[in-house]
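User: tokens in, sequence out, please.
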């Protein structure tokens, strides 16, 4: 955050010079005109980047089932989000009944992008299923995604440190293929990866035994906190690995429940100040809503808090 703020301030001073000292920038040369245009474009680009908050569509899984994906995407855009992260793709059912091409057109219609998606990896990890991985690569390319993300590990794949080492090897192999296709692979955590095995954890094994150039991390901040870990320390100890965040808050009365960002017990202001400058994509995710909370009011509340308070 400090990097972003400092850059904006510097760009602001440059623009102030443009507007307050016209005699120095009087378009007496093409070079000066180009510099002025570049300054304006730079500030615009940074401001746009600040506002490009995403949402993991799993947040609205019930609404997708009830209303259909077209309705949900329109409401996500109306709530102020600029990106979506997908989940649940299969070659048979596509993205909630839409082909990748159809889903891509739906996103474009609402001025949304999808830089990343969650794709089931259990079969790939267990047996190296190249056909499934190929279908994921094709789908990700069709909708303009950069990251294919491992969202979850089935219980049978994570019973011991040796299991996690096998997972790391399988992810490395998949990541080579993904990278050869011009995409990137990432891994999304829950809290079970932080279970202790003597002097290590499953997550530590994944960090140490996956190739840092090929395998990036999407850090679910809530689950890290639930496991008693400090996300800032994790990022400081592993620079360059954490390219994406899942942001959801912890209910003050029941840590097992989520709540709107800024309404829970996690100190997101401090975390964003210390670490947000190095993250490529930030996604709001909420796995449950309070009984009387309208889901669309909830996601709008979280969007407003992140963009107007945390990313300022």
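Assistant: Sequence out:
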């Amino acid at each position: 955050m400090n990097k972003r703020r400092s850059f904006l301030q510097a760009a602001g001073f440059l623009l102030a010079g443009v507007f307050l000292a016209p005699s120095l920038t009087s378009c007496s040369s093409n070079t000066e005109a180009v510099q002025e245009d570049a300054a304006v474009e730079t500030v615009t680009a940074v401001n746009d980047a600040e506002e490009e908050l995403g949402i993991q569509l799993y947040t609205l899984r019930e609404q997708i089932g009830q209303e259909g994906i077209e309705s949900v995407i329109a409401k996500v855009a109306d709530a102020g989000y600029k990106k979506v992260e997908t989940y649940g793709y299969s070659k048979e059912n596509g993205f909630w009944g839409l082909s990748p091409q159809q889903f891509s057109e739906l996103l474009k219609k609402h001025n949304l992008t999808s830089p990343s998606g969650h794709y089931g990896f259990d079969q790939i990890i267990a047996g190296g299923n190249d056909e499934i991985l190929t279908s994921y690569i094709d789908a990700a390319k069709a909708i303009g995604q950069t990251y294919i993300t491992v969202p979850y590990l089935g219980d049978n794949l994570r019973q011991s440190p040796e299991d996690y080492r096998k997972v790391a090897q399988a992810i490395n192999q998949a990541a080579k293929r993904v990278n050869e296709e011009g995409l990137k692979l990432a891994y999304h955590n829950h809290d079970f990866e932080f279970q202790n095995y003597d002097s290590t954890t499953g997550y530590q094994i994944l960090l140490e035994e996956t190739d840092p150039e090929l395998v990036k991390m999407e850090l679910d901040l809530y689950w890290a906190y639930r496991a008693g870990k400090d996300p800032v320390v994790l990022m400081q100890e592993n620079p360059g690995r954490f390219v994406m965040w899942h942001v959801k808050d912890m209910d003050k009365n029941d840590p097992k429940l989520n709540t709107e960002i800024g309404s829970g017990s996690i100190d997101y202001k401090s975390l964003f100040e210390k670490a947000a400058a190095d993250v490529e994509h930030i996604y709001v995710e909420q796995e449950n809503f309070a009984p009387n909370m309208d889901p669309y009011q909830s996601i709008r509340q979280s969007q407003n808090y992140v963009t107007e308070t945390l990313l300022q």
